[in-house]
Amino acid sequence: MPPRRKVTTFNKARAIAWLQDGVSKREVGRRLGVSHSVVVRLHQKFQATNSVLERPRSGRPNKTTQREDRFIRRQALQQRGTTANIFRGQLRVATNTNFSTKTIWKRLHEVGLRSRRPAVRPRLTAAHRQARLAFCHNHARWTRQQLADVLFSDESRFNLHHHDGRARVWRRHGLVQERVAFGGGSIMVWGGLQFSTQYPRLPHCWQPDGPALQR
Which residues form the Transposase Tc1-like domain (predicted)? Predict the structure, then answer.
């Protein structure tokens, strides 16, 4: 038996409009590609509720209580690097209940907590922050003449065969990805810019197996 075709909200509104214009229920079903009984139930529901929207449903009740949900959320915020399986064990010890790891995932997803790679930034102590803030205050009002002798530089490393991040691929069983031993090397590109010079300085490239410095 083929699965029942779901009627969208837009088509439900069209069906009600056609019925109000005098179109028969069988003709409405033919236009929408559904059975006559579907149109009859839709019309009856509209007459009872004056709406074609689905009524909210309670669904299956959660296995965990609100107290257990708060415990899971608090543990995830305090121990951000811990897995859901460890949270499951902690919850079993604290509340003497046993839930699956999937249930822990669902409770965390409901509050917007998902397993993601953390953003990386330099570790700064309080002294580092004070020094950087003092540097900004001391140089915030420098003129163009004062900045003329300052060299602004930056550098970037480019891998020859792969990137440093975690790579994910869609694959079937048995697919193997080729890799180069020791990463295959990389190229470091450095460039500088100074206001006192007429043109920006050309970037320099360091190659792993080539000359020490190339332009």
Answer: 69-140
Burial class (CB in 10 A: 0-12, 13-18, 19+), 132: exposed
C-alpha angle with apex 118: 102 to 69, nearest 5 degrees?
Answer: 35
Q: What is the pTM of this model?
A: 0.42
The structure tokens listed for 209 are 């197996």
d(CA 113, CA 196): 50
Helix-helix angle 66-78:101-110, to 10 degrees: 80
Instruction: Quote the CA–CA distance of 75 and 78 in Å, as a whole number.
Output: 5
Residues with Cβ within 8 Å of 118's Cβ and at least 6 positions away in sequence, in order, are 80
In tens, the pLDDT along 57-81 reads 667 778 888 888 899 889 888 888 8
pLDDT digits (tens, 9 = 90+) for 99-154: 889 998 888 888 888 888 777 788 889 999 999 999 999 999 988 888 888 888 88
- Identify each DSSP E strand in the chain by its residue range: 151-159, 186-194, 204-206
Q: How far apart are CA 191 and CA 148, in angstroms?
A: 17
DSSP 8-state secondary structure symbol assigned to residue 6: P
